[in-house]
């Protein structure tokens, strides 16, 4: 299981990138992109996203 990003809701603020303890989040085309192979399902990005664009699968 990994976090997923709703690209339509993501504003590209990059707060999730900063919050990820394993650096599994990067930016692609101005939106958050989560590497499922690196994600450890901690949920920090879900809690950090101000527009609730990230959820757990």
Task: Give an overview in words.
- This protein has 57 residues and is an alpha+beta fold.
- The protein has one domain: Alpha-Beta Plaits (2-Layer Sandwich), CATH 3.30.70.20.
- Helix content is 18%, strand content 25%.
- The strands form two sheets. The chain has a two-stranded antiparallel sheet with strand order 1-4. Strands 2-3 form a two-stranded antiparallel ribbon.
- A hairpin with a 2-residue loop joins strand 2 and strand 3.
- The longest helix has 5 residues, at 15-19.
Strand runs, count: 4
Strand content: 15-25%
- Uncertain spans: none
Choose one word for the global shape.
globular
Question: What is the CATH class?
Answer: Alpha Beta
Q: Sheet with the most strands?
A: 2 strands, antiparallel
How much helical structure, as a percent, in the residues?
Answer: 10-25%
**Spatial ordering of strands, largest sheet:** 1-4
CATH topology, what is it called? Answer: Alpha-Beta Plaits
Mind telling me the C-alpha Rg? 10 Å
């Amino acid at each position: 299981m990994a976090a997923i990003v709703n690209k339509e809701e993501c504003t590209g603020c990059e707060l999730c990138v900063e919050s990820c303890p394993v650096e599994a989040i990067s930016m692609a085309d101005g939106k958050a992109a989560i590497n499922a192979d690196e994600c450890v399902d901690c949920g920090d990005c879900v809690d950090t996203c101000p527009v609730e664009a990230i959820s757990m699968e």
